[in-house]
Amino acid sequence: MELLDFYADWCGPCQMMKPVVEEFEKTHPDLKVTRVNIDDEEELAEKYGVSGIPCLVFLKDGEEVAREVGVVPAKKLEKIYEKI
Amino acid sequence: MKKYDVVIVGAGIAGMTAAIYAVRAGKSVLVLEETMQGGQIINTINIENWPGDMGVTGAELSQKIYQQMLELGVEMEYEKVLELNKSAEFNSEIDARDGVRACYNVKTDETEYLASAVIIATGTEPRKLSDEMMADVGKRPVSYCATCDGALYKNKTVVVVGHGNSAKHEVKYLEGICAKVYNIHHDEPIPEDAEAVFVAIGRVPNTEFLSGVVDLDDAGYVVSDESCHTSALGVFVAGDCRTKGLRQLVTAASDGSIAATEAVKYLS
Question: How many CB pairs below 8 Å do chains A and B form together?
Fold first, then answer.
């Protein structure tokens, strides 16, 4: 399982999500978390059709299985993860 | 069911300040927040009107206040409050305590809590486009924050809906990024070539769950004044969701301190 975390340095809500995602990564060693700076990796953001940030995309075998746009507490992230 | 002296709904600047004051007064305090501490201010990059911390970001300020609140012993849960009701104990507590203390049942999307006093600090959210407008928007992305999402539309064509001060601000910001920026009223058709829709047609208070519990004005704001009391015994209000003249960080914090102090007075 993989998690793409689309963010930008100038995005306040992304700053709020940073510790949440970091903690989530720690508690889920099986999850590969990749932080994607949309300013540096415009093509990747476009490939995944990112239209607002913060944007978390869960991938299973390379296929998107869930997506969350905007700030989300750890508890909700956990619920999404349990479902997929 | 867990019981607290004070349950605060909303962890924006008003709610977190109220929590700090209430816990410092020796009360047990629970803050309930649906999404993320900080509230509306987390979208702001550069704050220049918060005394003592020139240029602080909304995210930094929010995290500082959040940490301070936890260090002082406030409890926090990420749950959405669905209902606020007088509890079964409401009347008996009034009898037992000479008619001064109410008791509320706070129902969330996960569980229920009992609160001797409640502080409403739910803030406001952007007014959404009408269903008709949304049909016109179709599958195009909709954003309520140009500074958050504008950079995703570099050299593209976008539209800003709304003509107030904040809409003008959004237009100006997007003009520095996008190839073309339309600006329309909320009853005009969305231009066909716009790839994204930015909406700035005002804000509405998050008070739907309070209808029938406390008095709301026509726009849905909790009717109150500088005392931060509401029409319901034991329910107080702080921040942008109450009727007031100036909605700013400092007035939110000010409300938080007053609402908590009034709640503490009420409980003693």
Answer: 63
Kindly identify which residue of chain A lies nearest to residue B45, measuring between CA atoms: A12
Report ipTM for this prediction: 0.91
Of the candidates A3, A5, A6, A14, the residue annotated as catalytic is A14
- Asked if the domains at B2-125+204-267 and B128-199 fall in one CATH topology, the answer is yes
Chain-centroid distance of CA B93 in Å reads 30
Q: Which CATH superfamily is domain B128-199 in?
A: FAD/NAD(P)-binding domain (3.50.50.60)
CA atoms within 13 A on the CB side of A82: 6
Topology of domain B2-125+204-267 in CATH is: FAD/NAD(P)-binding domain (3.50.50)
Its pTM stands at: 0.92
Q: Does A47 touch chain B (CB under 8 A)?
A: no
Q: Where are the alpha helices (DSSP H) in B138-248?
A: 146-149, 165-175
Identify whether A11 is a catalytic site residue: yes
Model confidence pLDDT, tens digit, residues B182-211:
999 988 999 999 999 999 999 999 999 999
Residue A38: closest C-alpha in chain B? B152
Q: Which residues of chain A have a CB within 8 Å of the CB of B196? A: 51
Distance CA B253, CA B256 (A): 5
